Amino acid sequence: MNESANFYVWFTLTFLAAGLVKGVTGMGLPTVAMGLLGTVMPPAAAAAILVIPSFVTNVWQLLSGPATARLLRRLWPMMLAIVLGTVGGAALLVRVDPLWSAFSLGVALIVYALYALLGPALSVSARAEPWLSPVIGVVTGAITGATGVFVMPAVPYLQALGLDKDELVQALGLSFTVSTIALAAGLMVHGAFQLNQLGVSTLAIVPALIGMWAGQKIRARISPKRFKQCFLVFLAVLGLELASRPFF
């Protein structure tokens, strides 16, 4: 099998796996896809491929309930800050040596996995939210721009806002959608996203949606909590592999 065929096999399996995780847990597609694609290409190239499937699946998630407008009114300062932080942070993803970009991605995966496995449940007061939301947005954006991973610290922050289950799913969809658009804009500003990459990115929609469908079927049969634990251990191991690259 030639190199091109090997890439497309890995590409298909990556988005099947990423969609599967998202179907079971409601999140994780960009994280898994960046981690797996980052093992065979520079993170900036992986992030560019991720744009279309991430956008499609997250818009679907955002529009899955009735709270979209309410969440936009509540969370717009955080979303604006994510855009600003991501567009600025994307310079690091583009300009830094790919080995060190992979190192940053690996560290982000390890931190997220360890927090989700071991971290305490947090709560944000109504008084703190107006000033804390933009801070979380800027930090999330900077990490997104530098690594292509959307989750930290946006996910634990949104989980701490006291949203009900359906609102939380939509809020995550909103955050990930904005992060996807901002990452695409940041890559374009810094010359790392070309229109001809849209074709490959669009191809990823099919395995991603098949994976999501399969994940939703699996979710009805197994404990999402146990699956999430296995997923997080996998991310930590993947993060260790990426983070070790500059040293071996």
From TrEMBL:
Segments traversing the membrane: 7-24, 44-63, 75-94, 100-119, 131-156, 168-188, 195-214
PANTHER family (alphabetical): MEMBRANE TRANSPORTER PROTEIN-RELATED, TRANSMEMBRANE PROTEIN YFCA
Family, per entry: Belongs to the 4-toluene sulfonate uptake permease (TSUP) (TC 2.A.102) family.
Main location: membrane
Locations listed in the record: Cell membrane
Protein name: Probable membrane transporter protein
Organism from which the protein derives: Bordetella genomosp. 4
Xref: InterPro entries: TM_pro_TauE-like, TSUP
Keywords, comma-separated and alphabetical: Cell membrane, Membrane, Transmembrane, Transmembrane helix, Transport
